[in-house]
Design goal:
- This protein is an alpha+beta fold.
- The chain has a domain of 81 residues.
- Helix content is 18%, strand content 23%.
- It has 2 helices and 5 strands.
- A 5-stranded antiparallel beta sheet has the order 1-2-3-4-5.
- A hairpin with an 8-residue loop joins strand 2 and strand 3.
Length: 116
Protein backbone atom coordinates (compact mmCIF):
# COMPACT_ATOMS: atom_id res chain seq x y z
CA UNK A 1 0.00 0.00 0.00
CA UNK A 2 1.48 3.34 -1.02
CA UNK A 3 0.96 6.59 0.83
CA UNK A 4 0.28 9.66 -1.25
CA UNK A 5 2.06 12.91 -0.32
CA UNK A 6 -0.18 15.61 1.15
CA UNK A 7 -1.72 18.06 -1.28
CA UNK A 8 -0.65 21.62 -0.52
CA UNK A 9 -3.47 23.88 0.57
CA UNK A 10 -3.52 27.09 -1.50
CA UNK A 11 -4.82 29.22 1.38
CA UNK A 12 -2.95 31.73 3.52
CA UNK A 13 -0.84 29.01 5.17
CA UNK A 14 0.88 28.13 1.89
CA UNK A 15 4.57 29.00 1.62
CA UNK A 16 3.96 31.17 -1.45
CA UNK A 17 5.46 34.64 -1.51
CA UNK A 18 3.43 37.24 0.36
CA UNK A 19 1.68 39.95 -1.64
CA UNK A 20 3.46 42.62 0.44
CA UNK A 21 6.72 42.86 2.33
CA UNK A 22 6.26 44.11 5.88
CA UNK A 23 8.40 44.70 8.94
CA UNK A 24 8.04 42.14 11.72
CA UNK A 25 7.20 43.30 15.23
CA UNK A 26 10.79 42.76 16.46
CA UNK A 27 12.17 44.73 13.51
CA UNK A 28 9.77 47.61 14.16
CA UNK A 29 10.73 47.55 17.83
CA UNK A 30 14.40 48.15 16.95
CA UNK A 31 13.55 50.87 14.43
CA UNK A 32 11.08 52.68 16.71
CA UNK A 33 13.51 52.53 19.63
CA UNK A 34 16.11 54.37 17.54
CA UNK A 35 13.42 56.73 16.23
CA UNK A 36 12.32 57.59 19.79
CA UNK A 37 15.87 58.43 20.86
CA UNK A 38 16.40 60.66 17.82
CA UNK A 39 13.06 62.45 18.36
CA UNK A 40 14.00 63.04 22.00
CA UNK A 41 17.29 64.59 20.88
CA UNK A 42 15.39 66.86 18.45
CA UNK A 43 16.96 65.53 15.23
CA UNK A 44 13.99 63.68 13.74
CA UNK A 45 10.36 64.78 13.71
CA UNK A 46 8.30 62.49 11.48
CA UNK A 47 8.30 59.09 9.81
CA UNK A 48 6.44 57.13 7.17
CA UNK A 49 6.07 53.40 6.55
CA UNK A 50 5.45 51.84 3.14
CA UNK A 51 4.74 48.15 2.59
CA UNK A 52 5.17 47.39 -1.09
CA UNK A 53 5.37 44.21 -3.15
CA UNK A 54 9.17 43.85 -3.07
CA UNK A 55 10.26 46.14 -0.26
CA UNK A 56 9.18 47.56 3.10
CA UNK A 57 10.44 51.10 3.78
CA UNK A 58 10.63 53.12 7.00
CA UNK A 59 11.37 56.74 6.03
CA UNK A 60 12.66 59.28 8.55
CA UNK A 61 12.08 63.03 8.14
CA UNK A 62 13.50 66.11 9.82
CA UNK A 63 10.41 68.05 8.78
CA UNK A 64 7.20 66.66 7.36
CA UNK A 65 7.35 68.45 4.00
CA UNK A 66 10.92 67.42 3.17
CA UNK A 67 12.46 64.43 1.48
CA UNK A 68 13.46 61.68 3.93
CA UNK A 69 16.79 61.96 5.74
CA UNK A 70 17.09 58.17 5.80
CA UNK A 71 15.22 55.19 4.44
CA UNK A 72 15.46 51.88 6.25
CA UNK A 73 14.60 49.17 3.72
CA UNK A 74 13.83 45.49 3.99
CA UNK A 75 14.22 43.55 0.72
CA UNK A 76 13.80 39.80 1.32
CA UNK A 77 14.97 39.04 -2.23
CA UNK A 78 18.50 40.13 -1.18
CA UNK A 79 18.66 38.10 2.05
CA UNK A 80 20.93 35.46 0.50
CA UNK A 81 23.21 38.04 -1.14
CA UNK A 82 24.20 41.31 0.56
CA UNK A 83 21.54 41.14 3.25
CA UNK A 84 17.90 42.13 3.31
CA UNK A 85 18.32 45.32 5.38
CA UNK A 86 19.74 48.63 4.16
CA UNK A 87 20.00 52.22 5.34
CA UNK A 88 19.86 54.68 2.45
CA UNK A 89 20.78 58.35 2.79
CA UNK A 90 18.92 61.39 1.51
CA UNK A 91 20.88 61.43 -1.76
CA UNK A 92 20.15 57.76 -2.47
CA UNK A 93 23.52 56.40 -1.34
CA UNK A 94 23.55 53.08 0.51
CA UNK A 95 25.10 53.82 3.91
CA UNK A 96 25.07 50.23 5.14
CA UNK A 97 23.60 46.90 4.08
CA UNK A 98 23.54 43.64 5.98
CA UNK A 99 21.78 40.63 7.41
CA UNK A 100 21.37 41.93 10.98
CA UNK A 101 19.06 44.96 11.37
CA UNK A 102 20.63 46.05 14.66
CA UNK A 103 24.09 46.21 13.06
CA UNK A 104 22.76 48.05 10.02
CA UNK A 105 21.03 50.69 12.17
CA UNK A 106 24.29 51.53 13.95
CA UNK A 107 25.32 53.70 11.00
CA UNK A 108 22.64 56.27 11.93
CA UNK A 109 22.45 55.67 15.70
CA UNK A 110 23.73 58.53 17.87
CA UNK A 111 27.22 58.02 19.20
CA UNK A 112 27.54 57.99 23.00
CA UNK A 113 29.04 61.22 24.33
CA UNK A 114 32.07 61.04 26.59
CA UNK A 115 31.79 62.99 29.82
CA UNK A 116 35.04 64.19 31.31
Amino acid sequence: MSVLPPIPFPGPASPAAPSQVAFHRTELSLILSLYGRMVASGEWRDYGISHLRDVAVFSVFRRTAETPLYRIEKRPALRLRQGQYAVIGSEGQVLRRGHDLEQVLRVIAPKPKLIE
